[in-house]
Amino acid sequence: MRLFVRIVELKSFSRAAEKLELPRGSATQIIKQLEARLGVKLLLRTTRQVRTTVDGELYYARCAAILTEIDEVEAAFSQAARQPQGRIRINMSSSLCRHILIPALPGFCDRYPDIVLDIGVQDKQIDLISEGVDCVLRIGELRDSALVARPLARLEQLTCASAAYLARYGTPVRLDELAQHRTVDYISASSGRSIPLEFTLEGSIEYRSLPASVAVNNGDAYVAACEADFGIIQLPTYHVRTQLEAGTLVEILPDHRPPPLPLHVLYPQNRHLSQRVRIFVDWLGELFAKGV
To answer: What is the DSSP letter of 141?
Structure first.
């Protein structure tokens, strides 16, 4: 059952065998024996992909539920229940990792010294199942998904530019003055499209697209381009708090701030959520409840 579930999730016999420390040939033989015993075809396999049959999809859902119950029962009687241990694979944007998670991690590691965090950093969204990731942190509105989403915070945003840029081009105090300004284009890593600037005005959202000489698809590069005097940007406040305090970046149009961005932690619905992952997700809830 465990082998079958991992093959479905990873879409690969070889990767599933590697995760379970089995020879690849043994994995193939085990699935053949399983299909023979059940009397149904569970997987359709080509040189490029592995996918479930209709029976295989139903069998996967039941197996995932059964394995979850088994793991929960065993965990209740194991040392791991009293002292959580093991590896957690997580994924998040570079800005969240650098400015929020890493500074707070010493407290988590002091509390749970036997948990190892394997942190993947990238702004592009990933497939948790195929990548073998336990949970991800995502900023922004969520698409329809089979993932479980737990809200963590609403991140305040602001509009800013470098002090040098504003000294050269002037500081806009009204939205209609933006026509004389430039921006740093932020390109969505998931859609490949430029994201326009957003401003709140009398309870509604106004969009502005300004000319740009530089386009980026990464949060740190976005801030760096702003610091290099390429124009106006919008982003969560936490990302530029240090620069704002130092005066190298300056908030503009504070009465028309962009709307807050929702932050969620997501994890697969049908995969067993181990005790250590539950602990980490709860810790994230505590962390963001304090404000960022």
So the answer is: P
CA dihedral sign, ordered 234, 187, 99, 135: positive
d(C-alpha 168, C-alpha 94), whole Å: 31
Q: For residues 92 and 100, what is the distance between their CA atoms, to the nearest angstrom?
A: 11
pTM of the model as a whole: 0.71
CA torsion angle for 12, 63, 148, 74 (degrees, to 10)?
-110
Among the residues of the chain, which ranges form H helices?
2-10, 13-19, 24-38, 54-76, 79-82, 94-96, 102-111, 128-131, 163-169, 219-227, 241-246, 275-289
Listing DSSP states for 227-277 in one string gives: HTT--BEEEEGGGGHHHHHHTSEEEE-GGGPPPPEEEEEEE-SSS---HHH
Please give the Cα distance from 63 to 57 (Å, whole number).
10
CA 86 vs. chain centroid, Å, equals 21
Cα–chain-centroid distance for residue 138? Answer: 4
Each residue's pLDDT tens digit, 236-289: 999 999 999 999 999 999 999 999 999 999 888 755 567 888 899 999 999 998
Contact 280, 90 (CB under 8 A): yes
Six token digits for residue 207:
């969009």
Q: Among residues of the chain, what percentage have pLDDT more than 90?
A: 63
